[in-house]
Amino acid sequence: MNANKIKTAITPTRADNYSEWYQQVIKAADLAEISSVRGCMIIKPWGYAIWENMQRILDEAFKETGHKNFYSPLLIPLSFMQKEADHIEGFAKECAVVTHHRLAKNAEGVLVPASPLEEPYIIRPTSETIIGDAFSRWIQSYRDLPLLMNQWANIVRWEMRTRLFLRTTEFLWQEGHTAHASSEEAMQESLKMLDIYAQFAENHMAMPVIQGEKTASERFPGAVNTYCIEAMMQDNKALQAGTSHFLGQHFSRGFNIKYLSKEGKEEFVWTTSWGSSTRLIGGLIMTHSDDNGLVLPPKLAPAHVVILPIIHKEEDRELIMNYCNKLREAVGKIVYHHRRLVVEMDTRELPGGEKAWQWVKKGIPIRLEIGNKECTNQTVFMGRRDKEYKDRQSISQQEFLAIVVKELDEMQTNLLHRARERQKQHSMIINNQNDFYEYFKNDGGFAYAHWNGDPAIEAKIKAELSVTIRCMPFAHKANPGKCIFTGEPSAQPVVFAEAY
Fold first, then answer.
1. DSSP letters of 95-128?
2. DSSP H helices in 175-278
């Protein structure tokens, strides 16, 4: 072992074993654990609080743009899925199917499924089909349009290889479903919702993303166009963090969703769907966390400040606790981005260093260590999670109360800046095939390269390098060139990367 190696709270480090480091960060922060149900997870309070904050912010953004929440059934009749052939083909391998109701004991006394259903049910892998059925009843006239709906729900997809937050058999998400009178209006909706995801990722997650369109082979089953946001993780792999789909009239024709136009003509509606999930928490972890554990952007942290009373002598307890309680009350009155600061106080009988390290691993933005000295001098001993553990300072309580919001905003900005710089450093424009292969045989990252649109080339690269086209980025639309694989004309560069 290298004697000069820096000791870290998380073992292994990112450099040693990124995949295992990710799992250990989740464990150390007490975010979630693998459940007894195959491929599923239990999201623990600290992890679920992050999801609640994400949910609250996105829900407000959806409602501000006119969407209303609803809920649809978890069970979808098999016949509904059969109405949209492309859709069922895309999800067939991931579907969990309910075929019986009622349990009974067999001759050996073992519980077995007893009564076959007349029609099997699919446990919701996504809801386009059952929503299509509902829309066909809800929409009669142009006056019913646009219909803008969203639901917060759980999803089941029978994944073979699972990883906490990133890919589990059951996960939490939101899915928007809308219907429109024209293709132009539906397309505008698809792009508007993608932009909401992008703004959320950058402004709240401090995670820079690329907006673009998926290739035909990467499209959502049944969609005409699929749009996405792609983020770079610290191992240089891409994470698809949100998608928005222009569904055209595929589902409206399959489910007979018609409306009477102003001219009195019966027309099929144009639909969209869009979604994001608890996968965002995985993205948050891999974008910002370090070898000491979780790092959380303040805007999404379950708590902003933790107060750590450090009591070495029993006779100091009353003094220190009184000081900490008053400090907690004062900090909790401060407003940060339209909400009061959330303050934790850790009164467990643990050594100060151990308590501090536990909160470092949980990613709380600001730690305040309070002992006899701080009470006497009316100060706080402050550490900020985006800085080195030893980079702490003693400041007056009055000054801290005046600057705490500024400190949190600085941390939020700093995390976004770090992630942007990292994405920039690991992105490259590539102009020939040899450089492309060499790039991905090394550390890789985001490769911007021209491609002629041939899906056979796309499939070949995926088979040889495990690299896929993440998107055709909007920012490079007006940039024609020549395909680096064939020399044929290319409308624009695309982004290649390994991905989760």
1. -EEEEEEEEEE-TTS-EEEEEEEEEEEEE-S--H
2. 183-203, 250-254
Q: What is the DSSP letter of 141?
A: B
pLDDT confidence of residue 351: 87
How does pLDDT run across 316-368, given as a tens digit for each residue? 999 999 999 999 999 999 999 999 999 999 999 998 799 999 999 999 999 99
Task: Flag whether pLDDT at 458 surpasses 80.
Answer: yes
- How many Cβ atoms sit within 10 Å of the Cβ of residue 400? 21
Spell out the long-range contacts of 105-113 with Cβ–Cβ below 8 A and sequence spacing 24 or more.
none
Beta partners for residue 275, in sequence order: 175, 243
Give 248-303 pLDDT, tens digit per residue. 999 999 999 999 999 999 999 999 999 999 999 999 999 999 999 999 999 999 99
Measured CA to CA, the distance from residue 117 to residue 130 in angstroms comes to 18
**Cβ burial, residue 305 (10 Å; 0-12/13-18/19+):** buried
Residues facing 77 on adjacent strands = 121
Please give the full DSSP string across 21-78, using - where no structure is assigned.
HHHHHHHHHT-EEE-SSTT-EEEPHHHHHHHHHHHHHHHHHHHHTT-EE----SEEEH
Q: Find the Cα–Cα–Cα–Cα dihedral 14, 20, 26, 27, rounded to 10°.
A: -120
Give residue 2's pLDDT.
52
What is the helix, strand, coil percentage profile of the chain, to 5? 35, 30, 35
**Of 359, 151, 186, 349, the residue nearest 257 (C-alpha):** 186
Give residue 280's pLDDT.
98
pTM, to two decimals:
0.96
Q: Give DSSP secondary structure letters for 382-433.
A: EEETTS-TT-EEEEEHHHHHHHHHHHHHHHHHHHHHHHHHHHHHTEEE--SH
Query: Mean pLDDT score of the chain, rounded to an integer?
Result: 96
Cα torsion through 217, 172, 241, 412, rounded to 10? 180
Per-residue exposure over 23-36, b if at least 16 CB sit within 10 Å of its own CB, e if not? ebbbebbebbebee
